[in-house]
Request: fold
Amino acid sequence: MSKVVAVGQQSNQFNLWSTCQDYYELTKPKVVLLLLLTALVGMCLASDSWISWQILTAGLIGIGFLSSAAAVVNHVVDRKIDGKMARTFNRPVAKGKVTPQKALIFAAVLTIVGYAILELWVNRLTAVLTLAGLLGYAVVYTMYLKRATPQNIVIGGLAGAIPPLLGWTSVTGEIHAHALLLVLIVFTWTPPHFWALAIHREKDYAKAKVPMLPVTHGIEFTKTSILLYTVLLCVVCFLPYLVGMSGLIYLIGSTLLNAGFLYYAWKLKFTSTEQTAMETFKFSIIHLMVLFVVLLVDHYMWF
Reply:
């Protein structure tokens, strides 16, 4: 009898752990962590002194919760599309491991708690802007733009680009041109980053009838677009140095990173192999992550 009870307890523990993993996956944790890194850099660049731990903690938790809520809504809205694509068919809602109703309740809880944290312990401007970012991604992009136009990721990318601004307003309570410049970097980075993945998964998007650029305009046109956007990104990434926002450390770091991104974009256009699109996509993540780390290092070494 004791063995049966023990087996039952182990089964319940396994089911609980599996359920927690499913809900954790709904939040797209890797994406949210990258967003939080850009928000953290926005916080630090907004001040010439160390950020108070209260603002730092409450700001990142609140932004993280609302970003996670947007990701959960994306899982629910895209569940039918996800079920048709090799990259996403095993997602919790698409697979039926979490019902859409439970996922939406989870998203609502994350939204309410996240907004309350920002409203009570950060400031209203940050709370409202973060909520607007959630609505922009979950409603405007996921529910409409993604299915309406091949420029979906260009227009909808603005919602994913605002975390540096949210970090900045968390500290200052104001919108500053330097914060908007950080937003511009992420906004310009998003199309070549995502289109590289879209090339790699072009058949999946075609099967799911999602009008991504490689599906509607062809892979070669998309490769050209990636190259041109990467050139534009290189120009935009120099602006923090040119306007006096950052120093020599950032200039050197961004130059090396931009050269790497440009190399992959050039290779994708002119000498690509089967793996080049995915290699470009992976490097783009490293590019943004390291770029913002370099901004952070430059700030504390420079001021």
About this structure: Residues 276-302 form the longest helix (27 residues). DSSP finds 15 helices and no strands in the chain.
